[in-house]
């Protein structure tokens, strides 16, 4: 009986050591993956990387990870002219396959989101005017130019291009229609640098900014 107890204690201790080694290995791998992504050009800034699934070591030996999550507040998006921060950034990558020595990585599918503040959206759509944007309800934003309320417009996207158009003038905007015509036309921008090689799925106005949703498949992440 005493021998059996010692065996059980030994097995428990061994499992504990293996689990501890696995968690140490995944922590090191996550830090290294963050460094590689930061230097790869597919994402700006250094994201936080979380490799899901247990055990990690069997996935590492197979060279395929079922789920990898990226997050962080240092990620940005750009239209090639302006670079703006992407808040609350979070992406999940499924089916991540890595090559020898982790020099390459491809993703079967990925999706995620992030928020661009209205002040930064205004920088992207501005044609030189002092435009201010704010939330006006589902699918719409309010526009103010030079301190004058202009009206509400719809926000939609096609590919990686986001457009605000169809502005409906308020009373003051109608009085200033002649002077305001130059800022009531469609305003759009195309994002040229989206994180992790994903494409833009949608752009949705919400209280704290424009929520961008990303999606992609068969994406080359590194290499």
Write a structural description.
A hairpin with a 6-residue loop joins strand 5 (87-98) and strand 6. This protein folds into two domains: 2-110 and 216-222, no CATH class; 118-211, no CATH class. The protein has a six-stranded antiparallel sheet with strand order 1-2-5-6-13-12. Strands 7-8-9-10-11 form a five-stranded antiparallel sheet. A two-stranded antiparallel sheet has the order 3-4. The longest helix has 39 residues, at 2-40. 30% of the residues lie in helices and 46% in strands. The chain has helices at 2-40, 56-62, 118-125, 171-175, 177-184; strands at residues 48-51, 64-72, 76-78, 83-85, 87-98, 105-116, 131-137, 140-145, 148-158, 161-169, 187-190, 199-206, 209-222. It has 223 residues and is α+β, with helices and mostly antiparallel strands.
Provide the fold topology:
Blueprint: H1 2-40, E1 48-51, H2 56-62, E2 64-72, E3 76-78, E4 83-85, E5 87-98, E6 105-116, H3 118-125, E7 131-137, E8 140-145, E9 148-158, E10 161-169, H4 171-175, H5 177-184, E11 187-190, E12 199-206, E13 209-222
Antiparallel strand pairs: 1-2, 2-5, 3-4, 5-6, 6-13, 7-8, 8-9, 9-10, 10-11, 12-13
Primary descriptors:
six-stranded antiparallel sheet, 30% helix, single chain, alpha+beta, 2 domains, five-stranded antiparallel sheet, 223 residues
Outline of the structure:
The chain has 223 residues and is of the alpha+beta class. The chain has helices spanning 2-40, 56-62, 118-125, 171-175, 177-184; strands at residues 48-51, 64-72, 76-78, 83-85, 87-98, 105-116, 131-137, 140-145, 148-158, 161-169, 187-190, 199-206, 209-222.
């Amino acid at each position: 009986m005493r021998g059996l107890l010692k065996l059980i204690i030994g097995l428990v201790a061994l499992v504990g050591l293996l689990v501890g080694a696995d968690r140490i290995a995944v922590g090191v791998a996550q830090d290294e993956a963050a460094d590689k992504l930061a230097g790869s050009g597919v994402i700006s800034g250094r994201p936080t990387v979380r490799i899901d699934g247990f055990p990690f070591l069997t996935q590492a030996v197979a060279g395929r990870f079922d789920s990898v999550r990226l997050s962080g507040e240092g990620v940005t998006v750009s239209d090639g002219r302006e670079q703006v921060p992407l808040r609350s950034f979070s992406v999940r990558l499924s089916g991540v396959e890595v090559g020898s020595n982790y020099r390459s990585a491809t993703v079967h599918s990925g999706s995620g989101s992030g928020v661009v503040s209205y002040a930064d959206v205004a920088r992207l759509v501005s044609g030189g005017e002092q435009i201010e944007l704010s939330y006006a309800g589902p699918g719409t934003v309010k526009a103010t130019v030079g301190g004058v309320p202009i009206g509400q417009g719809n926000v939609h996207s096609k590919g990686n291009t986001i457009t605000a158009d169809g502005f409906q003038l308020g009373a003051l905007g109608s009085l200033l229609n002649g002077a305001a015509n130059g800022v009531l036309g469609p305003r759009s921008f195309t994002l040229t640098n989206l994180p992790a090689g994903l494409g833009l799925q949608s752009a949705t106005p919400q209280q704290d900014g424009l929520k961008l949703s990303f999606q992609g498949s068969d994406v080359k992440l590194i290499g």
